[in-house]
Amino acid sequence: MPTLRTIFIYIIRFIRSIRCQFSQSTANCKNYHASNPEVIANYVINNVTPGAINSKQCHKCSNNLHSKGKTRLFDAVAMSFSIESLPPSLAKIVQRFQRATDQKRRYEQLIWYGTKLNPLSEEDKVPENKVPGCVSQVFITAALDDGKVTYSGDSDSQLTKGLVGLLVEGLNGLTPAEIIQLTPDFIQETGLNVSLTPSRANGFYNIFKTMQKKALETGSNN
Known about the structure:
2 domains, Sufe protein. Chain: A, single chain, two-stranded antiparallel ribbon, mainly alpha, 10 helices, globular
């Protein structure tokens, strides 16, 4: 029979091992998943929340940190977010919204992005181009030209159309790999996250995820 002292030592060692494992795993996951397009593409396909890691999808991490499902291991990445980490086109958009002094100005800026969208033909307004989970009707198309993705989109809601225009402006001209690696955390830097209703904020996320999926599809078809 082990003595109380032995049991205590085992417990201390176990706690230390867990702490080291968590620290190492977080670093490994952050570096591996944030830089590996194939793994991130897997998240996009399976509709995993950006920054979340699922045990069934993670073949890099073999420990038990993912055994309970989605774990926010990218929180450290979000905390260290900087505009410099964004593609130039998206960084420019964030900076424009940061210069807006109040909610009204942000809405006006958002609506302006909607007016910049090219008209979407009725032939493109088909179920496979419709964004799921949106209260408004939203359609997104994507094409690959010389390795760069070109989006088009439309919505029957003025503000949602602005969100589409914002993302089209920010993501057009990027490669599929660049688009897949992005997370929607930048919306917090624009201030729009506190201005939008919960349904529109959810709509933004669904539009973003749809655009990532379409970028992945264009890359796999070429």
